[in-house]
C-alpha cells in the first residue's frame, strides 16, 4: 500500500491514483469514526463537531473560502451558547474599547517612565493627556 507511509495534514486522507501514486484528498466528515460525547469539539464558527476528524474534514472541504480560513479548533467540548449582543451592548462597545485602549496606553506610559522607553516623545505626550 503506497499510502501506508504517506502523511497527509489534518482533515485529509491518502488515496492512491491509478498509477499507485499517493495523493491527499479532503476527509469526508460523515466518514469519520463515531466519537463519545466527551470528544466533541467547538469550532471558531461556534458549532459543535463530533471530533477533530469532523472539524478538520469540514475545514478542508471549505479550503479556499473565507469560512475555511477562519475555521479553527476553539476549545475541547461542546460549544457553549453565546447569546446575541443587545442593542445597548452594541452601542457601548466603542466606548468600552476606547476606555480599554486608554488604560493600555497609560500602562505603557507608566512603564515607559521606569525603562529606557517604549514610546516616542509624541506618543508619550499624547498618553500623558489622552483627551488632547
Automatic annotation (TrEMBL):
PANTHER family: SPARC OSTEONECTIN, SPARC-LIKE PROTEIN 1. The keyword Kinase does not apply. SMART domains: FOLN, KAZAL. The keyword Transmembrane helix does not apply. Its main location: secreted. This is SPRL1 protein. Belongs to the SPARC family. One of its GO terms (molecular function) is collagen binding. SUPFAM superfamilies: EF-hand (SSF47473), EGF/Laminin (SSF57196), Kazal-type serine protease inhibitors (SSF100895). GO terms for cellular component: extracellular space. PROSITE patterns: KAZAL_2, OSTEONECTIN_1, OSTEONECTIN_2. Keywords: Calcium, Disulfide bond, Extracellular matrix, Glycoprotein, Secreted, Signal. It comes from Prunella fulvescens (Brown accentor). InterPro entries: EF-hand-dom_pair, Fol_N, Follistatin/Osteonectin_EGF, Kazal_dom, Kazal_dom_sf, Osteonectin_CS, SPARC/Testican_Ca-bd-dom. It is found in: Secreted, Extracellular space, Extracellular matrix. Residues 25-81 form the Kazal-like domain.
